[in-house]
Predict the 3D structure of the following.
Amino acid sequence: MASRLFIAVVLLASLSSGARAEREDPTENLNAERDALIDKIAHGVDYQASVQRFAALVKQRDTVVATSQSAKDREQKERETLRASEDARRKLRDEYHKTNDYEVGWRCTLSVDPAHPVPSTEGRYRPDWGKVVRREQLRLAPKNELDEGEPATLYEVAGLAGTYQFRGEKFGAFRQPFDAKVGELVLVCHGSDGTQHGLPASWGPRLVTSGFAVRLLEPPLIVKKAKWNPIHVTGTVFFWAIKDVRWKFPPGSFLLTNLEVAKELGGGRWEVTAERDFSWVLEVPPSVKNQSLLQPGHAVWVILGTPRFDKSLKKLVLVAEDLEARYIFDK
């Protein structure tokens, strides 16, 4: 009898220890049966059947809160797996955020034809691309008798929409030095111009002072997406659409955005997170190519359209038209 009483005490501890850590027992509905089984086991009544039922009760409680050691081990393993998955996703994101593809994606508004850019209300840089037609290393005019003149490397790029002159110092992406040869293809994300004092008469007097430049292997991929003529936007657009429950773009228009899917929902649907814990749903028809790019933690460029606010899902839903891994092919 003493051994059975000891077993009963151990069983009671195993099924109630998790509840003591909580203010409220999440499996309170099991307590009456638990107590009855412990009493039977302690007094040897229907011993084998009571022990078997108690084991089943532990498994039932394990589905709500880890009670048995095996359930706790499983819960710990699941936490470690989730942590490893989040770390891997964070590493992928951090690595991608160091690329020119990402930098152009969120800081510039791409257009199929830079000479006729799509309308944008996000106030980002305007990209244009063309070849370097002039490069010169010189010293700016001295500021005073003791100044030797600041060294500068000047560039002129003949784009599709205009001509751009800028200094190479800190004009690369991420404010790195920019370096290119005459004849190389360059993307210039143009912000604003400013007067540069001390330039020789053959330059300026105004240069591009806000923006950056990237050497290209070929024009941005958007030039091949003319049939959609998409409006390039950032994730902020989707946040405000969800918050206001209003789609402000013209009917029949398409958007281009660079995003990271959160998780697969099944049936060709993917959840995409927006700001402040908002999210929306991306529907991907079977006919869309490159669907292998849709992986949590991986960036993907998407052309999408056909927006709707789905009452059953209570979500903004957009339909994918095109998927690409990159839009900027840099040197």
Summary: Residues 112 and 222 are 5 Å apart (CA to CA).
